[in-house]
C-alpha cells in the first residue's frame, strides 16, 4: 500500500536553510537501515527549527514506507484530547487508520500493531514534555526508522534518549544571511 504524501510548504524566502538541512540529513545517516535513529533540534522560538525540518522532510520522506510530520505538539497537547489527537494523526499518516484511538494506551498498542514492520519517518515539532514522547515515540519503531524532534528545551531531547552528537543546536543567521533576508 502506498500512502499519498505531499511536500510541505517551507518558506517564502529560505535564506540560510541549506546548511541546516544538509547538517540534519547527514546526522540522520540514511544509509544505515539496521537501527532506529533519533535526532533532536533545539533553539529559541522563531529561529527556524520547524522550517529546517520541513525542508528535510520534503527531501527524504520518499525514502520511507511511511511518514508523519506532527506540527505544534506543545499547543495541540494543551487541548483536552490532544495526545490521542496526535496519535490519530500519526496513524492516519502512516497507515490510513486512526479514527479508532480513544486513549493514549490504545494509541500505543495500535502503533505496535500497525507500524512495527514499517520503516517510518516521524517528525515531532515543538515537544515540551516527556509524556508527549512516551505517547508518540516508543519501542514500536522498525529498524531503519528515523525520528526528528524539535524543542525549545534541550533537556527534553536528553529525556528522549538522543545522544549529544545527534542534537543539532539551531543558531541564527550570520550577518550576510540576515542582510540578504532583510533585503
From TrEMBL:
Domain NB-ARC residues, every copy: 20-183
Highest taxon above the source species: Eukaryota
Gene3D superfamilies per record: P-loop containing nucleotide triphosphate hydrolases
InterPro entries in the cross-refs: Disease_R_plants (IPR044974), NB-ARC (IPR002182), P-loop_NTPase (IPR027417)
GO BP terms in the entry: defense response
UniProt GO MF annotations: ADP binding
Protein name: NB-ARC domain-containing protein
Lineage: Eukaryota, Viridiplantae, Streptophyta, Embryophyta, Tracheophyta
Amino acid at each position: 500500500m502506498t500512502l499519498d504524501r505531499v511536500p510541505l510548504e517551507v518558506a517564502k524566502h529560505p535564506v540560510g536553510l541549506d546548511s541546516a538541512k544538509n547538517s540534519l540529513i547527514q546526522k540522520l545517516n540514511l544509509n544505515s537501515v539496521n537501527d532506529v535513529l533519533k535526532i533532536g533540534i533545539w533553539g529559541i522560538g522563531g529561529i527556524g527549527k520547524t522550517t529546517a525540518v520541513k525542508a528535510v522532510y520534503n527531501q527524504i520522506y520518499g525514502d520511507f514506507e511511511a511518514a508523519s510530520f506532527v506540527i505544534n505538539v506543545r499547543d495541540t497537547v494543551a487541548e483536552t484530547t490532544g495526545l490521542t489527537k496526535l496519535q490519530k494523526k500519526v496513524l492516519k499518516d502512516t497507515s490510513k487508520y486512526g479514527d479508532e484511538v480513544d486513549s493514549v494506551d490504545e494509541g500505543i498498542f495500535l502503533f505496535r500493531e500497525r507500524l512495527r514492520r514499517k520503516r517510518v519517518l516521524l517528525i515531532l515539532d515543538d515537544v515540551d514534555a516527556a509524556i508527549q514522547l512516551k505517547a508518540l515515540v516508543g519501542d514500536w519503531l522498525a529498524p531503519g526508522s528515523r525520528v526528528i524532534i524539535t524543542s525549545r528545551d534541550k533537556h527534553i531531547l536528553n529525556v528522549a534518549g538522543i545522544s549529544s552528537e545527534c542534537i543539532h543546536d539551531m543558531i541564527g543567521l550570520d550577518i550576510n544571511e540576515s542582510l540578504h533576508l532583510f533585503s
